[in-house]
Write a structure and sequence with these properties.
- It is a single chain.
- This protein has one domain (33-139): Sandwich (Jelly Rolls).
- Helix content is 3%, strand content 43%.
- It is built from 1 helix and 14 strands, in the order E-E-E-E-E-E-E-E-E-E-E-E-E-E-H.
- Residues 52-112 form the Cupin type-2 domain.
Length: 143
């Protein structure tokens, strides 16, 4: 388990973790993404808790979780958007509550890293539904 809190000369509040493997390219685009799991998916708690660090321009694909998700932004600037709604700019100290089954995406701004603590209640392993990437065209419309 990599508990390094430094990435590209930046000191983060929580461990950055490991770079997301290439096999996860369906889930992320636009740059490198790092994960550190405090409570893994396979835990008996059924509530994974992890730190995700997005490099500038990186983001996850549109996706939905079967349980309630909470995101706590701990560093930088980024974006959150639910399907059919306007994007919401995020900054360190912001939080997002995502209702079960809501299609959404989140990630870093073009010019900033973003780190988030996130957990999903009642989320068995491999239960997240992953959809299409947030296209570069769509993403580049953001300020």
């Amino acid at each position: 388990m990599n508990e390094n809190r430094e990435l590209d000369g930046i000191h983060f509040l929580f461990p950055v973790g490991e770079k997301t493997p290439a096999k996860s390219q369906k889930s992320f685009t636009g740059g490198d993404v790092y994960h550190f799991m405090f409570i893994p998916h396979e835990s008996k708690l059924n509530c994974p808790l992890g730190n995700v660090t997005y490099t500038p321009g990186s983001r996850n694909s549109w996706h939905a979780h079967p349980g309630l998700q909470v995101l706590l932004i701990t560093y930088g600037r980024g974006w959150y958007q639910e399907e059919g709604k306007a994007p919401r700019e995020l900054h360190a100290g912001d939080y997002v509550v995502v209702e079960p089954g809501v299609k959404h995406w989140h990630g870093a701004a073009k010019d900033s890293y973003m780190a988030q603590l996130g957990f999903v209640a009642n989320c068995p392993e491999n239960s997240t539904l992953t959809y299409e990437h947030v296209s570069d065209e769509e993403y580049n419309k953001l300020p």
